[in-house]
Design brief:
flat, mainly alpha, 110 residues, 48% helix
Length: 110
């Protein structure tokens, strides 16, 4: 007799999914890659340039100032590859990204 409430399969993957195991598809980012509003810890105060406020002109000015510094670093190495200069440009671009992200989070109406 067939028990309609229980279907047994030899596929161990399907049983691991039912038991909270791996889920098919691409991996999902952990909390360290999610925006702060989604659970990632807030960075230290000195670590990230914060958006001055949600005024679009102030945010634009802050990001523009950071991008000017990125360009100054690029000009200082005069087209040669310099790992420390690349690292500094990366830091500045991350700060600009953080300013923009913070400004967006501040005006998010969700």
């Amino acid at each position: 007799m067939i028990d309609s409430g229980h279907i047994e399969s030899g596929d161990s993957e399907s049983s691991s999914q039912q038991n909270g195991g791996p889920v098919p598809g691409p991996p999902r980012p952990g909390p360290h890659l999610m925006p702060r509003s989604a659970g990632a810890p807030a960075p230290d105060a000195g670590e990230v340039a914060q958006a001055p406020d949600t005024d679009p002109d102030a945010v634009t000015a802050a990001v523009s100032a950071l991008l000017v510094q990125v360009d100054e670093v690029r000009q200082a190495v005069d087209g040669t590859f310099d790992l420390s200069a690349l690292g500094r440009q990366t830091e500045l671009l991350e700060q600009a990204h953080d300013v923009l992200t913070t400004a967006l989070e501040d005006v998010d109406t969700r």
